[in-house]
Amino acid sequence: MSKVLLVHAKGGPPLGHVLNRTAARAEVHLLALSALPPSVTDCARTLCASVETPADAERSDLVSLIVSRAEAVGADAVLTFSEYAVVAVAEACEVLGLKGAGKASELARDKRLMRRTWHEHGLAQPQFRAVGTEADLHAAADVLPFPLLLKAAWSAGSTAHQIIRSPHELSDAWHRSREVMAESAQLGYAELHVAEAQGHFVVEQIVTGTASDWFEEPGWGDYVSVEGVVADGTFHPVCLSGRMPTVEPFTERAGITPALLSPDAQDRVVALAREAVDALGLRDCGTHTEIKLGADGGMWLIETAARFGGAMTVPQIEDVFGLDLVGMLVDHLVGRPVQWPAQALGPAEAHGAAGSLVVLAVDGRGEAWRERKIWDFPSVAKEVPLSPGSELSVVAESSLPDGDVVPVYDPAGGANTMAALCLLSAADARTVLHDFETLVDALPQVLPATRPEEVSA
Predict the structure, then answer these.
(1) How far is 100 from 232, CA to CA, in rounded Å?
(2) What is the value of pTM for the model shown?
(3) What is the largest CA-CA distance in the chain?
(4) Alpha carbon of 275 to those of 60, 270, 301, 355: distances in Å?
(5) CATH number of 127-205
(6) Which CATH number does the domain 218-453 belong to among 3.60.20.30, 3.30.470.20, 3.40.50.1980, 3.30.450.20?
(7) Labelling 355: which of 39, 62, 64, 120 has CA 20 to 30 A away?
(8) What Å distances lie between residue 336 and 1, 176, 229, CA to CA?
(9) Plot region of 175 (φ>0 → left; ψ -120 to 50 → alpha; else → beta)
(10) What is the pLDDT of residue 454?
């Protein structure tokens, strides 16, 4: 049986889902760079041939650590589903002579290099400047049009994103973004291989999206993601996921599979995603490409990742299209033949729809809840009126325990201030969108209020 070294870190699809699918295809050895979620600990011990948690001293050279562990277990493949470990795993695979994202992995991780590469290929994206100091930010603001978006170059989940509307906001935004990145690192949401990554930023023009030109009904966000894979250097698009509108500044609230685009619109989006992935030169990995949708068919690239989409994107695809992307990628990496979709799948090929909702203390209008609330999924499941046939569940390993206080939403913190992740399956994507709108409106009403002593604790 083939052997796989799975490198676990924060982010990505739920570890329980990944472990089950990987263990069905290979003997799994787990290298845990982040603590295992309590709900997955027993599962990991059962499914894995070994579980290794390296000491802090061993992590100073992450590539060497991964290489030595892979050699020790005789791994036929090394993979990760975490944004924060993508580069280290890709470099380790190069040393080991195994299939991986390749030397171009850093282009799909560092937003400065990514945007520079796309600019060299003439691909549509917002105007941008790389930023390493506060002086760089002020200089960029002299040539870019306001409002601006400041991003951490190596972040994920919209962490440290800030909208800057005028020159007098530049200094505060710079210091706040650096502060948030330091806080995120303490929580384990930070690049694991590039030590200086916390100081790298990019600032860019905010382009105007127009969802109404792309979707027949209101309620959809103005961007989509193209989920896919690169196998032996060839990009294979799998499907598109749609979104609800983001919470300011650009924190994702929900992803829905499939996206309800017309076949022509889907083809145009996929074509741009293909150009973006091809320009980066990736070799063997999952991909997740986000694209902003504008008026009159205009589009702009947001970013591409050298891994599958996070949250519940991968389980949603399995539920809707019957594709086990984790297992298929494992098969490819260990040298088994895989039949990838001939073209991106769409609503016509979908069996129902599925979506994942990030629970943030923000209502449907983007305003903070007036009261602090206690997370309590049983109350949500019992009291929120969903459509007939819809099924709602909570992703335990990505959610607070019932009884914990819901965090106050911090725009600069992005997904770091989420309370829970919910999964919904329904008859079609319109129903998922409608039920999520109902859920967002109902949450501050059905969740129990905190008592003063709970908030202070």
Answers:
(1) 9
(2) 0.95
(3) 61
(4) 36, 9, 10, 27
(5) 3.30.1490.20
(6) 3.30.470.20
(7) 39
(8) 12, 48, 15
(9) alpha
(10) 58
